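note to self: the first set is below, dont mix up w the second
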Amino acid sequence: MRILNNTLVKILTRNNIATEETLKPLMEEAERSSRPLQDIVLDSKLVSETDLTKLFAQYADIPYIEVDPRNIPSEVLNRIPERIARQYNAVVFQIDEDGTMHLAMDDPDDVLATNFIEKEIGSNTKIYIAPHSNILQCLENYRGDVNQELNEVIDVQREDDGSDQKVSEADVAEDSPIAQTVNLLLEYAIRSQASDIHIEPRENFVQVRYRIDGVLKEVNQLPRNVLNALVSRIKILSNLKIDERRVPQDGRFKIKVAGKQYALRVSTLPITDGEKVVMRILDESNQAITLQQLGYWGRSLAIINNAIAEPNGMILVTGPTGSGKSTSLFSVLSMLNTPEVNISTIEDPVEYKIPGVNQTQTNAKAGMTFASGLRALLRQDPNIIMVGEIRDGETANLGVQAALTGHLVFSTLPTNNAATCLPRLLDMGIEPFLIASTVKAVVGQRLVRRLCMNCREQYVPTPDEINEIVSLFNLRPDQTFAHIHDLELQAIEQKVGGDTPAGTDETTIRTLWRAHPGGCDECG
């Protein structure tokens, strides 16, 4: 719920909670710190969040409710997918016999949010306003059950002897505790928006870690005696050899969670304490993420849009492993995917399936490499070609020749930044004049951790922090803060970072945001 300053003053004065005189210092503080007056009022304990929500409900003539999370059936809660529920802070808590759905939101005035949700669940809805904290409690129902069930299954395993055990058919059957453990680990990882699952044997336990926003986070420790059965169950799903534990193996399987299909790329590796398993989670749903949703905006977004509008040329994406290069290319190809063009790809492996795009996977054993696959694609009358990675001079040369002969070519290059991309092409034997005539854009990207919008903290940066930011932008002294302030205003205009107020002006950086130590119930 975001209340405009003028509306907030009216609500507080009309209900004799404050006078304009007592609100004046709070308004000055809001202006000085560039924070919403609503946040300042709540921080001052002048009124509680619950009472303010009730008063706003009366003012806006919206039904008010406080939902008990324990009384929401899971089938009712899941009428809205978790991702959408968290994005718009909305939960369905009741469905009547006539099909009317009761929806609680913390900001029913958000017309875009209500319209989007009604498209998802239907227009037969009754909308209520609830305190933000109450909505967050309800949202925890999406993942709370998974953790509880997992711990119950693990407790059964802990009762057994802690040593490694031989695996029987019963241990890895569909209805076995081990199968339940694997299913719950996968479900919880997907709902936590993890990109990878690490199952790592240690001397006295099995460590389970998820990679979330680029950082590994321990989520559980399983008893040591479940290791062999756990790995065997994953191998069965991935069609790998159960009895082979001396060499690495790679496999793949699919699961369905909350109506969406996911592919899991599995890699096993023998280490000193047993077999380690890493699973990469790939969302196979057909909903492409836009470049804006990935974080592209401003001048960078304009440059990319101009480059992909060209009829031919080469566009390269660079960055470390796991920085989202494939996701960015998937987004671009989805934008260009129309019936008028033939899009063909050669990938290792095919991570995202795009309807209408001809996707081929490399197979080194069969002689299908990036280079040989690219040669074959050029005989398939393509308009747009995507090569998963340019690893050698032969592939680079074929890509350049394709760009010269009227094709739009996309690929990734194993360099750390955009600046080193062109020297890398030179090292591969590509002539400078060919690079100049074919390469339309080079995109260097990183995976950036996100601040929790619920518990992030605003603070005043130190002079050293300000100097470090200035040096990162590599700006002249006469344009330093004006340029940074202009960039922030562009970000605010394009809604980058939600409703975050400006923290800079033309003379300095006044405030920054940082993570709250320990997080909160929403971000863990």
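second set (the one i keep forgetting abt)
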Amino acid sequence: MATKDVSLFFNVSIPISPNNPLPGNELGNMLAKELCSWYDHKYGDRQKISWKLGEFVLKIRNDLWLYKVPVYYGTCNFFINKNLSDSGDNCSVNILCMCKNMTQVYVNNLTNEELNYIAASFNFSRQSFEILNHWSKVNLPMYSALMADLENGRQQLITRHAHYGQAKWSYLQCFEKIIKGWLQKADISSKEIRSFSHHLEKAVSKFNQVYRQNIDPNLYELVQCPASVRYDEVPTSKAEAIKSQNAVLSLIQQIGYSPTVI
């Protein structure tokens, strides 16, 4: 990091923000301003921190909506209020405000059943993302790769040229990497893991033999698909793609924060 290198080079303390200068630290305070300007010119908006725990896609009235699950600390009250001007406060969040493209007119026409569905889906996804975030701290093998697959699946659902086959394929890849990552974590040999190839039923069966936590042996069927879905050779519906996303989120919860080896 440039700030650390400059601090060591000049042997001075550099405040995190130039707006909070340190007393009796003229050189360090001046360097903080210069570094801040350099970062702004070089990185711009890329410096901004993403306060998202995760994102998921909901299907409502055959429309797809992207919902954000925010990062939060301690206890947070997630509630539903049709009035989008009520976004919540420091310790509460209006779930409906987590979808930036959903208008007030659209929200006004949502039924109670649809509102309950949104709330349940949000809380379900939130629990999955909390677990997924924890996995990054336990050095789960292939974590970055499976996260890339998860993100790609989501993008394929909401992009202008949405492709549900590509989305389902990405969720399949994510599902597979999650299981194989935990098998590696349990010291199952690479040779044995490779022997499963893309046969998810074998990988799931092995996981259930190795860990106390069990995966639904039929869950993989919701993501299973041939590579040809990427080329429109096998039709994939919007509903199928969403089911694949939800299967991955279910898999995460079935495994849990730290599965126990038998």
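remember for set 2: Residues 112-135 form the longest helix (24 residues).
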